[in-house]
Amino acid sequence: MALPASLDEAVAALTAMPTAVPVAGGTDLMAAVNSGLLRPAGLVGLGRISEIRGWQYQDGHALLGAGLTLARMGRPDFAALIPGLAAAARAAGPPQVRNAGTLGGNIVTSAPTGDTLPVLAALEANLVIAGPGGARREIPVSHLLAGREMLRPGELVGYVRVPLLHAPQTFLKATGRTGPGRATASVALVLDPARRGVRCAVGAVAAMPLRPLEAEEWVASIIDWDGERTLVPEALAAFGDYVAAACIPDPPPPPDGTEPQTLPPAALHLRRTVAALARRALGRALS
């Protein structure tokens, strides 16, 4: 196992050992190893790389190190910076998971239930990727999650660039049990007053966070951005229904003109859950 002290050393180690797997907190990786799903030929430990365990300010953005733990992101000083991401980090699981799990691990694993992922999608965050020879390139986080752009051999996610909106952000999730647990559905919502926009992402209902763009545009058009930014309950409910229907649509009509199919009860329940989360998230952001 290699234990590099810098990001470029880690890239060099991965380049020298193409079959090695990088590991930080290991909350997902070690679960896969213990269950027999993964047998890595080697490991490159990232725990000694101090440069990716904090954050800095850069041109109206926060540059977050990929090694930031979920526990660190849940603290009040970080919550004052990016409240939606802090809320997701606090909801990510029991203390032992939050103390070990990292932001970069959440992104690279890309589990559908990853709590930080819908927040990053709603914030339209970018990834700064470190490559061989000191190379750096930047891609939208949504491209990696959707598989439109992938990490190349020897590359690592070094940082996450997040715009500082200085506006309300909310994250809510539903689980199948009381207390910390994997999300059955989650909703991240951020307001962007400078662009008079609302950005929403729904997690856990698909392989990647979903952005209901038409619902975002509709609700942004009815908010009084120069006034109190409040909406009547009926508008909040309509937004929730709009988001849920976009993310969990009805089955397409049969081509032969027979009776349209309906969603199974489990999908209908999930749709109602997403609608409730989206309605509450927007209400809290506007309150």
UniProtKB/TrEMBL annotation:
Keyword annotations: FAD, Flavoprotein, Oxidoreductase
Domain of life assignment: Bacteria
A Pfam family assignment: FAD_binding_5
Annotated GO MF terms: anaerobic carbon-monoxide dehydrogenase activity
FAD-binding PCMH-type domain residues: 1-167
SUPFAM superfamilies recorded: CO dehydrogenase flavoprotein C-terminal domain-like, FAD-binding/transporter-associated domain-like
Protein encoded by which gene: cutM
EC number: 1.2.7.4
Protein name (Swiss-Prot/TrEMBL): Carbon monoxide dehydrogenase medium chain
PROSITE patterns linked: FAD_PCMH (PS51387)
